[in-house]
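Possible regression after last week's pipeline update?

I re-ran a chain I had predicted before the update to compare outputs. Posting the input and the new output here so someone can diff against the archived version. Not blocking, just want to make sure nothing changed silently.
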Amino acid sequence: LTRMRLELEMSSLPEESLEGMQADISQMDAIVGQFLDYARLGAPASSETVDVSSLLQMIVEEARRRPGLALNAEIGEGLSIFAREIDIRRLVNNVLTNAERYGKTQGGERAEVDMVCRREGDEVALVFADRGIGVPEDDLERMLRPFTRMDNARGQANGSGLGLAIVSRIAQRYRGRVRLANRPEGGLVVSVWFPVVKSQKK
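New output (post-update):
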């Protein structure tokens, strides 16, 4: 892919053709990256205490600069889990990218996403709800499997079909769980739970 980029830069193609081919290469690069992410997540993982409240605040500030996303966040304070920060960042980014790509309101230019992080008993819950058209109920479970893309339900397919599968694999890696559901008023809800750090008090 790097060689192809270099050859394109040195070519004398028309600007429109050049931009189209560069976009194709960038998409292929992203898909290869997703394949590698999914494969690596099968390996044993070390973990550390992650202040998920602080981490999410940083991610929210970064995400609000994304032109295709309108993010509303409600983050509880002092919540920590055992994980790796890079994996939690990847999980959140994959959910938001999925919403940005497929969860736009009909005719809208941006995906509106409500994100909540709260403690529920002995778990920390991360809940993401977009306002798109959702997914057929019979296909919700299948969305967490590798290489699944709900082209008809969630818009044009331009990903690898691994985004939500990686979310599920990250959750499993740290003894968490994932559930997909549709909002009654329209949209997909992605809920992820992780065990709370045991030293925390309610």
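Follow-up from reviewer: compared with the archived run. The CA atoms of residues 7 and 160 lie 25 Å apart. Marking as no regression found.
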